[in-house]
Amino acid sequence: MKSIVKKTLLLAIFLSAASVLFAQSGNSLIDKGIAEFKSGKYSTSLTYFRDVVIDSNQREYHSDAYFWIAKSYIALRQLDNAEENLEFFILNYPDHPFYQEALYQKGRLMFLQNDYENCILESYNFLEKYPDSPYASNAYFWTAESLYALGRLEEAESLYTHIIYTFPSSYKVESANYRLSMIEQKYREESLVELLKLTHEEYLKSIEEFQVREKTYENALDSYQKKLSLIDGDGDNSQGSRTLSLELLDLQTEIRNKDNEIMALKRKIAELEYRLTTAESRAAEAAEAAKIIEVNPETAVVKTETEKIEDIIVEPEKSDSDILSSDDKIKLLELKTRAQEVKSFYLKYLSNVGN
Q1: Stretch among 26-40, 67-81, 148-162, 212-226 having the lowest mean pLDDT
Q2: What is residue 28's predicted lDDT score, i.e. its pLDDT?
Q3: DSSP states of 174-217
Q4: How many Å apart are CA 202 and CA 58, to the nearest integer?
């Protein structure tokens, strides 16, 4: 009897010691996984967290493991796996200390998946529930980024400004300032593109008008030649020559004015094209060098995210009506040449009449 009692006590002590040993092992695995995660060794950290999940004796630490598995997958950009584990954590552990961050990470994950509408929705719900969260500035930032990606620049601009003035110590302030400068440049470029388009339209309109004028000049030439024939036939050359001279001066003035107008438009278009090309080049260089900086509020460890910012400056598509073609330029030169020929003809004629 005493032997049985002794064996029972020994078994109880053994099971108790084993339980403590397993618990220490689970906690140790989580700690090691977190250490590897903070060192940027995300694949290695996953092995530790998975070891916890597959061990039924470590059930006490399953919640922590699932949370860190999701974050590790996010860091590795294995976004579908991250979503699966994050949703499992949120659904099964609503009272966990990491639950608040998990909701924030869900909104951020939506952005990384290019699901901008749902990112805005999830981030809004998070901020409604936790307005004073240490992740609030980050949630506002991903909302602003989603708005920016959707082309809703005014709304994005408002949120970036809110981050700068409401969370001046946030690590997102630098990125928000950068985005504001990109939005301002985008506004300038859009204005410049519109101005360039209008200028080209004005240029082509001037060419068309010049063609009409040139036809008028040709008709006027026929009329003047007929008048000259009548004047020569009547023998009254003096008065007819003076009248014709005045009309020719008006014609020369119109040709000169139109020529100056078209040349001014050409210079203006060339200047606008140069400014637009320069702006696009600078924006592309800025986008290449830019990186988003994110802070982990729990550990106050700053890290540079590896995701590349989407194209900030979208180069405007150039249609046929936006660019003066080579044919247009050749046609313009031909028109100018023909107009000059008309002018030269009359100048020569007047010179002969004067003699």
Answers
A1: 212-226
A2: 85
A3: HHHHHHHHHHHHHHHHHHHHHHHHHHHHHHHHHHHHHHHHHHHH
A4: 76
| Beta carbons of 244 and 223 less than 8 angstroms apart | no
How far is 139 from 135, CA to CA, in rounded Å?
6
Q: Which of 259, 190, 246 is nearest to 220 (CA)?
A: 246
Task: Give the chain's largest Cα–Cα span.
Answer: 158
pLDDT in tens, 68-108: 999 999 999 999 999 999 999 999 999 999 999 999 999 99
Rounded Cα distance, 87 and 76, in Å: 17
Residue with tokens 């040993």: 21
Cα dist from 96 to 99, 105, 126, 333, whole Å: 5, 15, 16, 78
Handedness of CA 36, 41, 44, 47 (dihedral sign): positive
Q: Which residues are within 8 A (CB) of 148 and not within 5 positions of it... i.e. 6 or more apart? A: 156, 179, 183
Nearest alpha carbon to residue 108 among 132, 69, 68, 135: 135
Task: Give me the residue label for tokens 């029972």.
Answer: 8
Q: Tokens standing for 346?
A: 């009359």
Give the separation between CA 106 and CA 73, rounded to whole angstroms: 13
- Positive or negative, the CA dihedral 207, 213, 215, 221 is negative
